[in-house]
Amino acid sequence: MNETMVTVVGNVATTPVYRELPTGPVARFRLAVPTRKYDRVQNTWSDGHTNFFTVWAWRALGTNVQGSVSVGEPVIVQGRLRVRDEERGGQHWTSADIEAVVVGHDLSRGTAAFRRVLKANPALTEPALREPALREPAAERDGEPSPVGR
């Protein structure tokens, strides 16, 4: 299958909008990707054109984006690029969307604290499947010293 996969580094430009749809959860936000160039003559950086992408994150990724990403944060997005041309109200619009596969904070510009999401599994709540309590060796329970202490 020929799909255009892209990796884009930029800043979150809008608050993620989260929706529960019949097909599953989705989060959408705008990503600003500025162009910066170094001017060796003036020894300074200058900003150029800024591209904007609408990022769509589906299912678990959408849920995690909604709880992890805020306006202004630097992120890296990898996914499928979709360019759309539309006519609305007599005007021609072109938009670039990214159907995200991966979204993460850009750690070259700051730090993040990762928290693994635990999926709800009723079997894990049964007492037998919980972490076993620490017990003393059987020999010590019977009044004999443990071989570990010898």
Automatic annotation (TrEMBL):
HAMAP family according to UniProt: SSB
Subunit structure as annotated in this protein's UniProt entry: Homotetramer.
Gene Ontology MF terms in the entry: single-stranded DNA binding
Top-level taxon of the source organism: Bacteria
Region (Disordered): 125-150
Record-given protein name: Single-stranded DNA-binding protein
Keyword terms: DNA-binding
CDD domains attached to this UniProt entry: SSB_OBF
InterPro entries in alphabetical order: NA-bd_OB-fold, Primosome_PriB/ssb, ssDNA-bd
Biased segments, Basic and acidic residues type: 128-144
Organism encoding this protein: Streptomyces kanamyceticus
UniProt record, GO biological process: DNA replication
